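wait is this the right file?? whatever heres the structure
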């Protein structure tokens, strides 16, 4: 009961890999919902949520926590395979990313052609998870971007997540190999958190803007590492619980929870008829602080880059920790059905909201939307996110018990099958020597494609082709943008002609001068 009363997940150390990784934390889904609401409200114009970008920090913490938890479970069960873990992350991100590109480009061309040049320049870097470094090289600040926005701007977040997965999966494997104890492992993670926070502060104070500080993997890694450290701490707590149970049964054990930590985590108070634990109090305080920050913090505040983002990550980690127990008050509050529904669609809503908001709220609009206009736009966003979630994000295998969970089992089975057939070919001499290698490569690909819905397969291919075409085809995208804008609004051509004949106007019109 020690870990459960402390608000931690109580998976037994002897529980199988599939049983331990299967539970879904409803409270974390609710926290996702609050984070995506803050982000969408921040991108609305006008927005009272000047600090809604803090929702991205919360997403970073959740990502680091769940990713590390998955890696740890694979490591402890002896099923860790680097390629398998990265392939799992690619399957989670790439179909949705490519589908959003496939849907956004025609939407922009048809309804907002003035955004087409930036759409074209960002499509291919977004598709290969490199758009954040492209923004850094171009020196495009997130909070002070010049000119019209790019519909793919939010995809920098997806790029950072994929880059972190590639680096952290290998780094955590290495730490398990070289660290003498769990204390050394925790120390190494905290060292990297501090180092990343220092890198953000240095980058923000020594550059002309905050571009690198905001977009860089090195500067934003601290937020994901905070979630990673939380996952490692919870694993230790589960081990302490197992040690306590073993000690109670008369089995000697060297790993015990310190007495002072046990007393702090087991403290409970009461609020009327509701029992509140220490983690619940910390989580509710953290949630209130983050909520205040969403209304008061600004992206150009210098202190945010001098520990502010790391502080927000620590607050988010407190909430995540309280959500890992079904008995906690935090999990009950954040795990309510409406928030869980929104949170499960958070990824889809993140991908669709920004392009749709830019199309529905062009720069040429001067009047504020009425209250019912915002409701209509919210309904459009929710409908688009729901369609993307149902037809692209959800894998086919989830409906049949999610038999490809973690993708470790299908890959292992495919490899064993290839090995058996290779062995058979060696004895019979009827199979070419390279057939085993071909099967080793094709089996995971077939398994991956078969787990996707038909719409996800079609849109992924369409998105990849679209991104490559926009990136390599030597077309005059400014001219294409202008011609399409004239088709929608013929008065643009008339303005261009009048400017050419106006001796007091020395600049001719361009597609970037008009927003559709």
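ok assuming it is, sequence goes like this
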């Amino acid at each position: 009961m020690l870990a459960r009363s402390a608000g931690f997940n109580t998976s037994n150390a002897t529980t199988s890999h599939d049983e331990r990784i299967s539970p879904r934390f409803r409270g974390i889904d609710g926290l996702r919902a609050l984070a995506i609401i803050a982000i969408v409200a921040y991108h609305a114009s006008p927005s009272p949520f000047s600090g809604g970008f803090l929702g991205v920090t919360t997403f970073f913490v959740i990502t680091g926590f769940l990713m590390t938890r998955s890696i740890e479970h694979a490591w402890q069960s002896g099923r860790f395979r680097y390629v398998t873990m990265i392939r799992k992350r690619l399957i989670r991100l790439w179909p949705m990313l490519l589908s959003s590109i496939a849907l956004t480009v025609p939407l922009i061309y048809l309804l907002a052609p003035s955004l087409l040049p930036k759409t074209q320049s960002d499509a291919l870097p977004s598709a290969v998870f490199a758009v954040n470094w492209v923004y850094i090289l171009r020196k495009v600040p997130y909070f002070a971007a010049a000119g019209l926005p790019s519909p793919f701007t939010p995809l920098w977040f997806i790029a950072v997540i994929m880059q972190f997965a590639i680096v952290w999966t290998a780094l955590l494997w290495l730490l398990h190999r070289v660290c003498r104890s769990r204390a050394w492992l925790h120390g190494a993670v905290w060292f990297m958190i501090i180092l990343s926070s220092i890198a953000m502060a240095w980058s923000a104070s020594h550059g002309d803007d905050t571009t690198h500080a905001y977009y860089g993997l090195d500067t934003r890694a601290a937020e994901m590492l905070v979630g990673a450290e939380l996952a490692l701490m919870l694993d230790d707590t589960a081990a302490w619980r197992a040690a306590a149970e073993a000690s109670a049964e008369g089995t000697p054990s060297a790993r015990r929870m310190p007495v002072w930590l046990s007393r702090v985590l087991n403290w409970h108070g009461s609020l009327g008829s509701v029992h509140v634990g220490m983690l619940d109090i910390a989580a509710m305080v953290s949630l209130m602080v983050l909520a205040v920050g969403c209304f008061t913090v600004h992206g150009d505040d210098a202190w945010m880059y001098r520990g502010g983002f790391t502080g927000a990550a620590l607050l988010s980690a407190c909430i995540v920790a309280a959500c890992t127990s079904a008995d906690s008050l935090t999990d009950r509050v954040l795990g309510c059905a409406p928030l869980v529904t929104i949170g499960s669609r958070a990824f889809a809503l993140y991908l669709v909201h920004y392009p749709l908001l830019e199309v529905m709220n062009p720069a040429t609009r001067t009047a504020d939307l009425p209250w019912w206009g915002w409701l209509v736009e919210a309904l459009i966003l929710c409908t688009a996110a729901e369609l993307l979630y149902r037809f692209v994000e959800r894998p086919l295998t989830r409906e049949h018990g999610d038999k490809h969970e973690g993708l470790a089992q299908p890959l292992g089975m495919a490899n064993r099958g290839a090995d058996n057939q290779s062995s058979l070919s060696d004895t019979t001499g009827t199979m070419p020597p390279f057939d085993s290698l071909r099967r080793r490569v094709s089996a995971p690909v077939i398994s991956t494609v078969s787990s996707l819905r038909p719409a996800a397969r079609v849109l992924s291919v369409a998105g990849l082709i679209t991104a490559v075409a926009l990136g390599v085809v030597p077309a005059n995208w400014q001219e294409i943008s202008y011609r399409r804008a004239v088709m929608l609004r013929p008065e643009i051509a008339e303005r261009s002609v009048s400017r050419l004949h106006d001796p007091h106007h020395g600049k001719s019109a361009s597609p970037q001068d008009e927003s559709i």
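The CA atoms of residues 13 and 214 lie 39 Å apart. so i think its the right one actually
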